[in-house]
Here is the input.
Amino acid sequence: MTSEFEPRIVGFLCNWCSYAGADLAGTSRTSYAPNIRIIRVPCSGRVDPLFIAKAFQEGADGVMVLGCHPGDCHYVEGNYHARRRFAVMHRLLDYLGVDKGRVMLEWVSASEGARFARVVNEFTDQVRQLGPAKRPVHSF
Amino acid sequence: MSTYAYYPGCSLHGTAKEYDRSARLVCQALGLELREVEDWNCCGASSAHMVSHWLALSLPARNLQPVEKMGLETMTVPCAACYARLKDVSCELKDPEVRAKIGRVLGDQVTGRVTVEPLIGTLTTQEILDKAASLIVKPLTGLKVATYYGCLLTRPPKVAQFDDPENPQSMDRLLRTLGSEVVEWYFKTECCGASLPVARTDIVLDLSRKLLAAAKKAGAEAIVTACPMCHSNLDSRQGEIRGRYGDDFKMPIFFFTELLGLALGYPARELLIANHLTDALSLLQGRGLA
Amino acid sequence: MPRIGVFVCHCGSNIAATVDCAGVAEATRGFPGVVHAADFKYLCAETGQNLIRDAIAEHRLNRVVVASCSPRMHEPTFRKAVAQAGLNPYLMEMANIREHCSWVHADRQVATAKATEIIRMVVAKVARNEPLTAKQVGLTKRLLVIGGGIAGIQAALDVANAGYQVTLVERTPTIGGKMAMLDKTFPTLDCSACILTPRMVELSQHPNIELRTYAEVLSVKGFVGNFEVEILQKARKVNHLTCTGCGTCWQKCPEKNVPSEFDVGMGRRTASYIPFPQAVPNKPVSDTANCRSVRHLAAKERGEKLMECRVCEKLCPTKSIDWEQKDEIIVDRFGAIIVANGYDTFDHSVYGEYGYGKYPDVITGLQLERLMNASGPTKGEVVRPSDGKHPHSVVFLACVGSRDDKVGRPYCSKICCMYTAKHALMLKEHDPNIQTYVFYLDIRAAGRGYEEFVRRVQEEYGSTYIRGRVSWIYPQDGKLIIKGEDTLLGRPVEVEADLVVLATGITAASGAVDLMQTIGISYDTYGFINEMHPKLRPVETNTDGVYLAGCASGPKDIPDSVSQASAAAVKVCGLFSQDYLTTDPMTSVVDQMKCVGCFLCEEVCPFRAVERETLRGGKVVARINESVCKGCGLCVAACRGEALNLKGFTDQQLLAQVTALLRA
Here is the structure.
């Protein structure tokens, strides 16, 4: 085993699409990088930017937010709110000194187990390339 | 005085000299300065886009560049086919990738800022119509005409952005302003076969015959066009149509600028109306217009 | 102090093969608050559940973590299990170490470490769980049906027959909808009125049904089980309580030249009218825009002079004409709503190539239905509107306002292929010498007996089918010339016709979007209702207690509309079979001390669950209606003052998960 850097990744997954998509990856035995730790939320729109900032402050190397595809939100429009909030969030990340490549908002449906695995692998590689994150100094 | 870049196109330097002449005269009378685009080239109409997409875009694009250098914003185009090509490229140039690629082809920076409009559009704004009305010397009273826009001026609607695609009205408004009676007919934007005169003359004859017959049936004494290709087909094919189908229409075909010129007092001779292949002077003389 | 028990499931070998379950259990003993940990082969089995229940009692556990499969699988099972041991079911959390760990990671060391961390996060969360109680609210067992077409009629009858009270609101003066306008129905050629009118009569006489025609829904407040609805009863100027429907007023009304809506402009009606002879209710309304008496009274008020009429008033044997009658607003309570607002046909006047709707002999399919109908304006004689002559050659155009991006209608209207085939057949029955041509894009005849029907029309009835869109129609010598392309032959075609019938497509009913907004349900770009789930919940909307039927959610034929109506009725009966409704307790909650009343939450809430409450002292704050809230948490993330929280997924719970993971 090489002592390659293994990033710590927090994933906020909406219960109806992406969490179910991750379940499907499991039932289909589709393996993927083990770095992600999943936190179940009802909707991607539930994710407060504070959660993401807090994760970096506590030492995460990357944060993923996964929700239903646009138009498929269980709560009609929650993912649209997530998307809009995420766009604004990018500027805050700059201010905090967090590389934009360390956060990802993606859509994974309940039927996209393979896609879930692919997205997680790609993101893990991407964060691995970026190396360990520096903790933001600003407090909230 | 408004100044327009003027793109005559090949036809107006050849088969449609009378269109060029009358266009320049009426614009002058109406206070519009036309400045011919410097070093213009063929727009590529009817052949280039059959061969190469990028050639079809680059040829007309090259004509837009000098306009900016001349310090002008708007180009007016008498020929409907040229208008279709130039308007198409001005729409395409809104895409930065297309702009960059055409810039590379032409070896010059392309901005796509020039507005392209058809001459029939330039001459039918309310302001121009009012002005024309005030300058009429010889009203065309009693002249029954069918307005024929051809297939290219209004289509495709998303690109052409000119008048109603199925039932355009601008030429109708102009001719009514000049005092003539505009007949109701349904062939205003039908095809005359313009691009096929050499390859499939039979199709051109059939289509043109239908147009002439419909105009005649509608009670028109003459057809008015805004396109040198339409004019050429309808004007020059009447003999062949007689030979093939036996229909002898003797239908004079005018450019709208010619009738506008007549109404503004220019003599038919100066407007080169005698150049037409189907006699148009007799009709005008009969009405005291020539 | 939390006393947490952790139970690690082997799931046979599903988890145990790659995760050292005993080792994981052992590791969790050191987590904050954990007082007991155990592993077991199958926790979901009765023995496994007993193990948990016994441990709760023995170790006085007040929180439980079950580390096993996905909560989407067994959350209800384990909630029930802990509830049986006397614990609040919401004090149990699941750690997903199967789908998210053992099944996707082969390395035993990696999977074991990951499972431990997953449990650590869930332990941190469960420590902050609060007991939650599902609330029970009563419900009004009365149904509101919006729309009196065949879908609304069917739904109303089904629910009324089940013993519940129903109010049906219809905005026109009669029920029956589009189906009442049809002559025959495909593919069986049943007489439309013959099968529909008995249903209409049954509805009007049903003891459980209150019928409100000439009425519209103005506002909808409340939530499932408890809707408060304002209904506008438009003034009819006729007292329907005393009117006997004798017909004197509409026979004698001197204003006879109003284009008939029911005949789609093919016929005329009087100002005092019933739309058609079998209308239900069979009593007139006075169309105030055209009634001479109403116009006289209005002119008098403006100080102008207009001739007085009042013919109906003078002749009415029961003195039922009431000029003073005003629009009235009725407020009523309902437990459920079925939206069956139907459709309109596409307005073909945008098609310049078909004459902008200005050629009199270019008509729509619905207009042809009226011409073919024996009780229609021509008594069933199909004649040209321009000169009243019989057409000998009729051209049909399919897909007018369907499958056409150019006019913003890319969807298929589903019924036009069939009704066009029916029209071609019916015309041949009316006149065997008639020639019919059908221009079509594709024949879409999916349905029992549909394809066979179309084939019959082509083969037995000699209709000429030409595949291609018509590019141009123009009049010539009293006829219409139709030009198009036969795409199968690759040649242009030209047909001469006496009459052209456009198979205009289905669009959302006029005012549909306003209605959806009034009710608070979501709709697509075309104004059709979005179903809760397009496959599995096709008659529910995204608002609990509001159901849909018929063309409200897109093009449908009669059997599909009727099936949907009955399906919606069953949903309503299911709802009404309960004496109270249990609400999911995982809803948002407002800390009114922190709320500054900015109401950003109100803006983002997709379900209108945020209400305004005025506190003593006048401060206006948000309050969540728990019966309406679906627990998405949008408002929580939007709240700037941290006044909102989502029970079951609080900020504290989620942040504790983040911290527990990263600080370890």
Remarks:
- The longest strand of chain C covers residues 215-223.
- The mean pLDDT of chain C is 95.
